[in-house]
Amino acid sequence: MPRRDDIQSILLIGSGPIVIGQACEFDYSGTQACRVLGEDGYRVILVNSNPATIMTDPDFADATYVEPLRLDVLEAVIARERPDALLPTLGGQTALNLAMELVEAGVLEEYGVELIGADAEAIATAEDRGRFKEAMLEIGLSVPDSGIAHTMVEARSVVDSIGLPVVIRPAYILGGKGTGMAATPEEFEKAASAGIETSPISEILIEKSIAGWKEFELEVMRDRADNCVVICSIENLDPMGVHTGDSITVAPAQTLSDVEYQEMRDASFACIRRVGVETGGSNVQFAVNPATGEQVIIEMNPRVSRSSALASKATGFPIAKIAAKLAVGYTLDEIPNDITRKTPAAFEPTIDYVVTKIPRWAFEKFPGTSGVLGTSMQSVGEVMAIGRTFPESLQKGMRSLENGRLGLNCDPAEAALDEFDDDALLAAAAIATPGRITQLEALLRRGVPLEVVHSATKVDPWFLDQILSISEERLHLEDLGMDSMDRNGWKRAKRLGFADAQLAHLWGRGADEVRSVREAAGVRPTYKTVDTCGAEFAAETPYYYSTWEDEDEVVASDRPKVMILGSGPNRIGQGLEFDYCCVHASFALRDADFETIMVNCNPETVSTDYDTSDRLYFEPLTAEDVANVIDAERPIAVIVSLGGQTPLKLASTLPPGLIAGTSPESIDRAEDREQWNVLCSQLGIPQPSGGTAVDTVGALAVAGRIGYPVLVRPSYVLGGRGMEIVYDDAQLARAMAELSGLGSLGIEGGLSVERPVLVDRFLEDATEVDVDAIRDHLGEVVIGAVMEHVEEAGVHSGDSACVIPPPHLSAAVVERIEEHTRAIAEELDVRGPVNVQYAVKDDEVYVIEANPRASRTLPFVAKATGVPLAKVASRVMMGATLDELRLEGLLRERVVGDHVAVKEAVLPFDRFPEADPLLGPEMRSTGEVMGIDLTTGLAFTKSQIAAGGALPDSGTVFMSLADRDKAVGLEAARGLVDLGLDVVATSGTAEHLVANNVPVTTLVAKLGEDGVDAVELIRSGSVQMVVNSPRGRGPRSDGEHIRAAAGAEGIPLLTTANAALAAARGLADWRRFPLAVRTLQEYHEGIVAAPEEGLR
Amino acid sequence: MTRQHIVEAALVLADGEVFEGEAIGAEPEGGVATGEVVFNTVLSGYQEVITDPSYAGQIITFTVAHIGNYGVSRDDHESRRPFCRGIVVRDLARRRSSWRSSDDLDGLLRANGVPGIAGIDTRRLTRHLRDAGAMPGAFGTADASTLAAAAAAEPGTEGIDLVSEVTCDAPTVISSTGGARRIVAYDFGIKATILEHLSGLGEVTVVPAYTPADDVLAMQPDGVFLSNGPGDPGPLSDIRSIIAALLGEVPIFGICLGHQLLAGTLGAETFKLPFGHHGGNHPVRNLATGRVEITSQNHNYCVAEGSIPSAQLTHVNLNDQTVEGIRCRDVPAFSVQYHPEAGPGPHDSRYLFAEFEDMMAAVVGPAGGRG
Q: Do B20 and A226 count as a contact with CB atoms less than 8 A apart?
């Protein structure tokens, strides 16, 4: 069946900001969908609030709306665009849920929009836990014993009938949010009420726990002729009880016999047919009783998912792309397999390697969290590794994580488990935590019997034996020593995934020495192709992974090649924004006739789509792995400055002549405090006073000289890892002790002589400003944008909202900032992007730091101004001048219009209820959104809606402010009262407001005092917004409880007075003007506000 | 379990390509195992593949990296013993894990005298076979020149009657597990899973490959089944004569070699594919419905398209457009090149057994009508 001609325009909904459970895999799927639908001649209308995405690049859709993903906004877009169809299955749970809201509100019917891919009935059958269970029983599939509840009374009656332990699964959620396990009645009360709270329809499924069973997933596709195929089977190393997003997973499934696998395959087809997913991809999850083989179906997602992105990268079969084509009417047999080009997509990939996915967590950023994994996803990113065997892929995955580990063992961190005796270690491994995999290895290496480890952890004996083979090899290699290694010995070690760095650690040698001895023995890596078919057909797509075999499949090319190092696993501080930059570099350099080579290990990204670059190497980003790719490809240049800190850290291991753009010396000059100070003073640019220290004594001496408060920050980190503002000697000493602890374990941000800590005077109440600029080799500098932060200096720039153009800076200050930026770029001899941060206090401009590399804000600036800065930067790095790029048409002028763009951070505190949801110098946001409109207030309000914290239009605002915030807070309170909201406050704040003629309706008691306190008030539901600004990291128990209560109740929480003021102004504008949506393409043409709107 | 003792071994192909590895399974006589080297791309089902008699004369290379993970089960044997000449794998599991398993794969190989070689760059081997075609080879612990000589001397499968090696000696009867049909199944190397499906239709009498047509017709079967089997259909002219005598007398269903023999009887030409189809992921279009079936395949020889005027094409392979199924226009007989019974592989095509029942019903009336 060919393409449908009865539809011309298709609305796609993206997944919004990166949050835990929904990350850049949906940028990957959405980008693919935009591309194929556009190529097929459809008009593509895209709505996504996330400016860091590649899909929202204006080239990818005909109409790109960077607008909040909310019903009223979507309705406005639909009313304006009148699409023929809505494809809801490529934007994660967000898109699916919004599509359902649009159906229920009658919007799709009113405007005649057809749901394609999955209809409302299918979505409801899959997502509604009760209906799904009924549907599965109806077709004869087993499900765990369970019952549905909407209230605690119903919940208790369900658990009485099925018995503890149970799992609680809320309906219509993503990433297992609100899901919990309960083994005791107390745990049940807590978990069930949390689940009811989390579900948008207050519905939970209470399911008999089958923790310890084996867990599998099948990625299934179906077309409208009812052809069904399995793209990939995935087996979880972690048994049931750990969310699959938090599990180490392996493809293909390893421990299922064909009889069992085919039973599962049949069940997955029965499931997708019964649910009624007409076309596209679905993910079906199963649990298998290891003792009897009994199979039960756990859930299905009627859409592409994180697992389908993984399956696409694992097999070379692009699920999202194919799903988009199936949605518009093609059948699988009509679509060619991209990789073989000769065979059709109607087949099931077979793979001749093993893929391992390992999650990456960020518990260190959320003090107070337990770090125990469960049914609610907590990881912030993941790596995928490809090896010919499981041990090889596991070890490659471990070193891809960039958490200080060199592999599964054989590294300094290995010793951290030495202090535990066998029993303690076994007890620890019985609980799923990020450290479990290395605990398993240590237990097996010590000789604890595999059966004992299995019975304590339920990890399948096959996986344990594979891990044991690594442990045994490690012991064997240790005995053997490097000098006894022969060719077969090297080959065996490398085939088990040992990195040269691991062996160097084991033998007390240098990694370079290990490498040269190994190479002298004739053992070098080979690259194999990911080809969907186990080599049965020739592959046309150069998608490679390294392994240690006989034959290398890399096909030589004599074109000039540029290698781009990606950003590795998503983590807080380094995520989608950097993938955007790498992908744009690849696009721009391909257009300029370079052959581009991408190296990355993150399966969620667009950069690891084999379509993005000419060649893709799915490899860990370590010195050895990158050097091997360089040997294989011989690029003329390597780009290290677009992927965040990950590639930058590798720069020193690369041949200096290969590094594109700004030289490593310049990067060091900006990073090295002494050199940087000299540079600033030469240029006459003021800096906050400060110094560096490698120990506590040194830090105290610096603080003694410059005075408190001081900002403490490690060098060479992103996302403010370990950064803190301290107010006295004791706090400073504690902060230094924590950093030196990290250093001894080789953890990011740790203190060492090479990486001293920076101690700077902290400018209280200063406005923070970010600038992105690009300088070419002739010395011309183009300023991307000057961004004013909403939160004051001291809140990490990644967690702060920021505004283009700056609303409160005078033209003179902006001009001075631009001048300073030019001077710094010139002095550093920047060849490419540079980001400079400033603090402005009383019209004095202080420079905080400069980074001659792509910044997190580059994509936001590009969306706000219409200038494709990442593309321009990559071309400049390869020698083009800005003038040339202007002539080519790539570099355009910043759009001049009346629009304002606000970037807001999205924080994951709802996943970490134990952590204090407070902003500080350490970045904790996972993602960002953009609000764009014709006034600052409207743009800010849109950004808040998009970030999930829609400001209340009426009701009561609770305010509790630190003294220093009271002036700004007063202005905010006045604005809110003028809008008709009630303000309630604690005594100090109330006194200040009343004294300045702002009425306070209720005086709220401090915690523990008589009267209704803030927490009680928030819990009672009588507060619609909380403004609570704390100070430093001092005593803060009241504030912490207040913020936690706001988080638990899901009401908007603003932790700075500036944000409260912006909110008050935003609400005023929101009331004054009707909701308007416009495309980025329109904004980039320049929109001039009508005279009555011209105020901002 | 401790780090295993490694016995180095090598695989040498007839064209001189050498692959280094380690010996597994049974020790071959004189340290040399020979056969025609083919590759199979199934992700699961190694036991069914190894015990499939169609691999007689062949050395099976598994493209999937880990083999033996879930051991072997008494329930998964496709025949009384393996007939393949050996297996080539990248990694043989040291330890199996499955509630179903009764032994590990190495145990099965040793007990049945099947040698193997592990640690091979099976992807390089597969790419070589893909480009150069399936070819004879030899592997084992013998020295390289011995292996090379053995590979050169190995005749392969072309022009050889391998059916005689695998067929049963005397008829056996499998009782019905469902239907009331009487079916005679020619054993050219028949798989247990096929018998399982046929016995769902009725009682099955399995007869040796060269059982005369008259003997079979004397049993008054409702249908005759022509099984899968190893090697080249070319030299099996006696069997084609038997089929010719059965055609039109009784409904016939053939699978794999049975399909090639039926087509050959009808005058079709067969040819050898460069490296065959061996795997569980081949897309086949059913021309009657337009639907795509993912199929299990195992054959090196193939029926040439357009060479049988008396039959219509029913199924086509979407990877290379080769013939996958035919149905006679004038007599009740049909056959498919692939394996609808699966074992191992997808279950998408099991409806063909129901079509055999429908054909028998159309010709001889409802089941039990004759009994």
A: no
Split at pLDDT 50, 70, 90, the class of A1007 is confident
Which of A536, A544, A549, A553 would best serve as a mutation to test chain B binding (most B beta carbons within 10 A)?
A536
Q: Which residues sit opposite A219 in a β-bridge?
A: A232, A283
- Cα A824 from Cα A843, distance rounded (Å): 20
**What is the nearest CA distance from B160 to chain A, expressed in angstroms?**
26
- Give chain B's domains with CATH numbers: 8-153 (3.50.30.20), 163-364 (3.40.50.880)
Burial of A733 (0-12, 13-18, 19+ CB in 10 A): middle
**Residue A767 contacts residue A841 (beta carbons within 8 Å):** yes
CB A10 within 8 Å of CB A83: yes
**SS3 at position A406:** coil
End-to-end CA distance of chain B: 59
- Could you count the other beta carbons within 10 Å of the beta carbon of residue A1072? 13
Q: What is the full DSSP assignment across A451-515?
A: HHHHHHH---HHHHHHHHHHHHHHHHHHHH-GGG--HHHHHHHHHTT--HHHHHHHHT--HHHHH
> Is the dihedral angle over the CA atoms B63, B66, B68, B69 positive or is it negative?
negative
Q: Among B370, B368, B79, which residue's Cα sits nearest to residue B202?
A: B368
Q: Kindly write down the DSSP assignment for every residue of A824-888, as one continuous string.
A: HHHHTT--EEEEEEEEEETTEEEEEEEESS--TTHHHHHHHH---HHHHHHHHHTT--HHHHHHH
**φ/ψ (deg, to 5) at A175:** 60, 30
- pLDDT tens digits, residue range B93-115? 999 999 999 999 999 999 999 99
Query: Tens digits of per-residue pLDDT, B196-210?
Result: 999 999 999 999 999
- Interchain contact, A347 vs B1, CB within 8 Å: no
> Hey, which bits of A968-1096 come out as E strands?
982-986, 1002-1004, 1025-1029, 1053-1054
Q: How many CB atoms lie within 10 A of CB A805?
A: 18
Q: Are A1023 and A1016 in contact (CB under 8 A)?
A: no
User: Catalytic: B256?
Assistant: yes
pLDDT at A1094 over 50: no
Q: Out of B256, B259, B282, B324, which one is annotated catalytic?
A: B256
- Backbone torsions φ then ψ of A26, nearest 5 degrees: -85, -15
Provide mean pLDDT across the span B250-261. Answer: 98
CA distance A229 to A347: 7
As beta bridge partners, residue B335 has B254, B326
A264 in Cβ contact with A40 (< 8 Å): no
ipTM at complex level: 0.97
Structure tokens at A644: 């965040």
CA A755 to CA A844: how far, in whole Å? 30
Using a CB–CB cutoff of 8 Å, tell me whether A460 touches chain B: yes
State the DSSP H helix or E strand holding residue A284, giving kind and residue range, or none if neither: strand A280-288
**Angle between the N-to-C axes of helices A966-978 and A1057-1072, in degrees from 0 to 180, rounded to the nearest 10:** 20
Instruction: Give Dmax (Cα) for chain B.
Output: 65
- Our answer to whether residue B347 is catalytic in this structure is no
- What are the tokens at A746? 């080789």
